């Protein structure tokens, strides 16, 4: 995911169609739905008075540290994410030697920075100054972003789309102040109604690295006849109308994962102009939804299903006609043996 995202950033700052014509960089997955209308989101990130302008969001809130990237050193040593990025016995960090920007790629002072890996998300919301910095730095082969990228590739590290941008933001002094400032209970200080930038349900299949249970609520499962690919065991799981109350309480700007084949009602509700327009619908207690009635008879052939249903209707209709004829003739119609 890194390369498509970086390509999009490069396009924004180099293509004449877009230069100086955008206020915020947002990348979204195809299964994401905006909670609010474009005009509402545009006002939130407006350069003059938008409360979220100038803030870089590189998580949703499902990370251990909420809207801030999570240092892998916070995970237990045996946890898979930390174990994957262990580089030496003493500290799980990278030492990156790079050249600061000068008049050319080889000029400028050479420095070494200790990099501790931080996890976030590949789905980001970034302000223009950081996007410009990242794109222009990657054009220089000895810059900090370029050398960090090279190190990740050399070490054959995975999940880098959740690591590359969040880790850089944490370690770049000139951009650390652009990370979200949170209240003590994890909400956004600028807009205290926001706990999540993107509401999603994940990692509910097992306790966390610290033994916590993420949720005790039911969730939507994918029916085999829907034609929708099932969620991974760890998520993200599909959302529906029963998640609306939690979506409203989260203050999220986007929700994921959605599909019209799972619950198209969400497409009829979103986007809204105001949070009060979101119906406060919660998951019911101890309710199990029945399977959808089907006329399939030991086959997946839809044509066979339709033909069977038509023949069934003809049978019912013939039975009604027989009853009517018997009644007119003064005869009694006996159901159990079809005899007069």
List keywords for this structure.
alpha+beta; two-stranded antiparallel ribbon; about 350 residues; elongated; about 30% helix; about 10% strand
Could you walk me through the main structural features you see in this protein, from its secondary elements to its overall organization?
There is one protein chain. The chain is α+β, with helices and mostly antiparallel strands and 340 residues long. Helices cover 29% and strands 9% of the residues. It contains ten helices and nine strands. Strands 2-9-8 form a three-stranded mixed beta sheet, with no helix packed on it. Strands 1-7 form a two-stranded antiparallel sheet. Strands 3-6 form a two-stranded antiparallel ribbon. Strand 8, helix 7 and strand 9 form a beta-alpha-beta unit. The longest helix is centred in the last third of the chain and has 27 residues, at 302-328. The protein is elongated and about 100 Å long. It starts with a helix and ends in a 12-residue tail after the last helix. The relative contact order is 0.13. The model has no long low-confidence stretch (mean pLDDT 85).
Unreliable segments of 5+ consecutive residues: none
Outline the biggest β-sheet: 3 strands, mixed
Strand content: 5-15%
Q: List how many beta strands DSSP finds.
A: 9
H and E order: HEEHEHEEEEHHHEHEHHH
Mean pLDDT: 85
Estimated radius of gyration: 28 Å
Portion of residues in helices? 25-40%
The N- and C-terminal alpha carbons lie at a distance of: 74 Å
- Count of individual helical segments: 10
What order do the strands of the largest sheet run in, or round the barrel if closed? Answer: 2-9-8
Q: Judging from the principal axes of the Cα atoms, what is the shape?
A: elongated
* Structural class assignment: alpha+beta
């Amino acid at each position: 995911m890194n390369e498509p995202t970086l390509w999009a950033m490069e396009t924004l700052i180099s293509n004449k169609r877009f230069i100086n014509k955008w206020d915020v960089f947002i990348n979204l997955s195809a299964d994401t739905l905006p909670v609010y209308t474009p005009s509402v989101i545009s006002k939130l990130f407006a350069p003059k008075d938008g409360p979220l302008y100038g803030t870089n969001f590189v998580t949703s809130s499902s990370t251990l540290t909420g809207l801030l990237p999570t240092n892998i050193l916070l995970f237990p040593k045996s946890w898979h994410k930390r174990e994957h990025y262990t580089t030496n016995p003493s500290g799980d960090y990278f030492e990156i030697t790079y050249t600061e920007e000068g008049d050319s790629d080889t000029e400028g002072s050479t420095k070494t920075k200790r990099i501790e890996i931080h996890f976030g998300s590949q789905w980001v919301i970034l302000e223009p100054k950081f996007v410009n910095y990242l794109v222009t730095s990657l054009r220089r082969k000895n810059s900090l972003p370029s050398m960090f990228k090279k190190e990740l590739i050399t070490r054959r590290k995975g999940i880098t789309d959740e690591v590359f941008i969040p880790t850089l933001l944490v370690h770049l002094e000139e951009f650390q102040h652009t990370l979200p400032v949170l209240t003590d209970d994890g909400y956004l200080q600028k807009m205290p109604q926001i706990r999540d930038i993107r509401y999603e349900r994940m990692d509910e299949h097992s306790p966390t690295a610290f033994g916590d249970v993420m949720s005790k609520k039911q969730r939507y499962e994918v029916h085999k006849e829907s034609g929708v690919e099932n969620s991974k065991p760890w998520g993200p799981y599909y959302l529906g109308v029963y998640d609306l109350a939690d979506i409203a309480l989260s203050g999220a700007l986007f929700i994921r994962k959605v599909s019209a084949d799972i619950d198209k009602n969400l497409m009829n509700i979103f986007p809204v102009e105001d949070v009060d327009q979101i119906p406060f619908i919660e998951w019911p207690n101890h309710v199990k939804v029945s399977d959808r009635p089907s006329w399939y008879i030991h086959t997946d052939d839809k044509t066979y299903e339709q033909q069977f249903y038509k023949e069934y209707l003809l049978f019912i209709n013939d039975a009604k006609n027989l009853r009517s004829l018997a009644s007119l003739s003064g005869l009694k119609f006996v159901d159990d043996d079809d005899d007069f």
